[in-house]
UniProtKB/TrEMBL annotation:
InterPro entries: Glyco_hydro/deAcase_b/a-brl, NODB_dom, Polysacc_deacetylase_ArnD. It comes from Flavobacterium kingsejongi. GO terms for molecular function: hydrolase activity, acting on carbon-nitrogen (but not peptide) bonds. Keywords: Membrane, Transmembrane, Transmembrane helix. Residues 68-245 form the NodB homology domain. This is Polysaccharide deacetylase. The keyword Repeat does not apply. The chain crosses the membrane at residues 7-25, 31-54.
Length: 258
């Protein structure tokens, strides 16, 4: 498996060999540049694609799950749209997994309590979900995670084990922070892009093309568009004999410490 450590080791080894070779013959600077650019491209891809497990181990699917099970997950809530999502889930008798932002829980505590009361699983999605969170120090990342843990535990009475990085971005500082907290990182293998794609039908077609047993689907409980997608998705799953379950059920990975 390609990781940040192995990629960096490869870079260092090649640069060392080029440096030694330079004592015996002139090595064009372009070779050093190519090696550096190769390392940079891999590092950027690994940081932005959570499924690569480049910086941290992330659980993104379970192809070995028995039956046609999939997990539906929601990020960035709770929001005023979350009750509509909960209504649909309740109508179809489906449990989902919500990765919640600490500051949003403080803003909409009643909605968060409803998520818990209706039997859904919750996970940590940072406190601020700042656009610059990828630049945070280790101490700042630890604070983001632990602060949200405390808020969730205040309502649930349980410490969450799941953490989903905002934007799916990982880096060495996050890896170090997770050694302190610690949490299991939950990713996805189907990114709906429901915050980017303009129509529910196009989002649904994107999900359908990628859907397979064991999938973890990423949605956001932040818009009416996603509310429409969820209704279509649950009907599609029922018609095609899929079972929507929580991440805990799909991965056989405990969501809470107690």
């Amino acid at each position: 498996m390609l990781t940040h450590k192995s990629n960096t080791f490869f870079l260092g080894t090649v640069l060392l060999l080029l440096f030694i070779l330079n004592f015996y013959t002139d090595v064009a600077w372009g070779y050093f540049l190519v090696v550096g650019l190769f390392w940079l491209v891999i590092a950027v891809m690994g940081s932005g694609l959570i499924r690569m497990n480049y910086h941290v181990k992330a659980y993104c699917e379970n192809r070995k799950a028995a039956g046609k099970k999939v997990a539906i997950t929601f990020d960035d809530g709770p929001t005023p749209m979350t009750p509509l999502i909960l209504d649909i889930l309740k109508k179809h008798q489906v449990d989902a997994t919500f990765f919640c932002i600490g500051s949003q829980i403080e803003k909409y505590p009643e909605i968060f309590q409803r998520i818990l009361d209706e039997g859904h699983i919750v996970g940590n999605h940072s406190y601020t979900h700042a656009n610059t969170i990828g630049l945070f120090s280790v101490a700042e990342m630890v604070s983001e995670i632990q602060r949200t843990d405390v808020i969730i535990q205040k309502f649930s009475g349980r410490k969450v084990r799941y953490y989903r990085p905002p934007f799916g971005v990982t880096n060495p500082n996050l890896a170090k922070a997770l050694q302190v907290t610690p949490h299991d990182v939950i990713g996805w293998n189907i990114r709906s892009f429901d915050t980017k794609i303009k129509t529910a039908d196009k989002i649904m077609k994107r999900i359908e093309r990628q859907l397979a047993p064991g999938s973890v689907i990423l949605l956001h409980d932040t818009s009416l568009k996603t509310v429409a997608v969820l209704e279509q998705l649950l009907v599609f799953l029922w018609e095609n004999e899929y079972e929507a379950v929580t991440v805990e059920q799909l991965l056989n990975l405990p969501a809470y410490e107690n």
